Amino acid sequence: MSNINYDYIEDYLRSLLHEEDSLLCELESYAMENHVPIIHPEVKQLLSVIIKSKKIESILEIGTAIGYSSIAFCKAMNKGKVTTIEINEEMKNLATKNIKRAGYENNIDIILGDANEVIKSITGKYDCIFLDGAKGHYVHLLEDCLNLLNPGGLLISDNVLFRGMIASKELVKRRKITIVKRMRKYLDVISEHPQLETSIVPIGDGLAISYYKVVR
């Protein structure tokens, strides 16, 4: 559990979800058994609703892992286009296999490398950018992300409450102090940024949804 909500609330929310995609179910089990971080089921459901309601057609994702969220995004978009960045070659190779199994190999491009460097070479614009990589680097990636985001698009950042540590000093572990400080700074920046309107949603491990305002 994430320390964001009471366990019984998370359990109840997840009991209402009925994932019918056998591959996504398999990947959820794999992630749990192998301690691979993927988006929480209730977060996936919220993002699917947002993608469909906003008619999002292109997504840049920072942090591929096993390809679970990329596949879920394509499913919600009815294919669409996902560009996703992964620093770990083993994870990238596993994600490539899973994406091919899902039939989205023509819709998802995986770039191997450090997002801090790779993002500077990406061109084009996206309807949505999903930050789910190294938590301590969100604040460093922000301006590059905004440069790639369409006006009226969404910047969605996962794990922003980081097991509750962001909101409570009593939960902070010494080895996580740097990440916590950087994440707090990131939340301050996106909450005060003149071109962003941000809502922080306490589900999963904390989700920040930022609307990129059109400059007139």
From TrEMBL:
Please provide, alphabetically and separated by semicolons, the GO molecular function terms listed in this UniProt record: magnesium ion binding; O-methyltransferase activity; S-adenosylmethionine-dependent methyltransferase activity; tRNA (uridine) methyltransferase activity
UniProt keywords (A-Z) are:
Magnesium, Metal-binding, Methyltransferase, S-adenosyl-L-methionine, Transferase, tRNA processing
Instruction: List GO BP terms, alphabetically.
Output: tRNA methylation
- Please name the InterPro entries in this protein's record: Cation-dep_OMT, SAM-dependent_MTases_sf, SAM_O-MeTrfase, TrmR_methyltr
Its EC top class is transferase
From what superkingdom does this record's organism come?
A: Bacteria
Is the Methyltransferase keyword given for this protein?
Answer: yes
Entry EC no(s): 2.1.1.-
Binding residues for S-adenosyl-L-methionine: 39, 69, 86, 114-115, 132
Q: Please list the residues that bind Mg(2+).
A: 132, 158-159
The keyword Transferase belongs to this UniProt entry's keyword annotation:
yes
Q: Which SUPFAM superfamilies match?
A: S-adenosyl-L-methionine-dependent methyltransferases
Q: Which family does the record claim for this protein?
A: Belongs to the class I-like SAM-binding methyltransferase superfamily. Cation-dependent O-methyltransferase family.
What does it do?
Catalyzes the methylation of 5-hydroxyuridine (ho5U) to form 5-methoxyuridine (mo5U) at position 34 in tRNAs.
Q: What is this protein called?
A: tRNA 5-hydroxyuridine methyltransferase
* Native species: Alkalibaculum bacchi
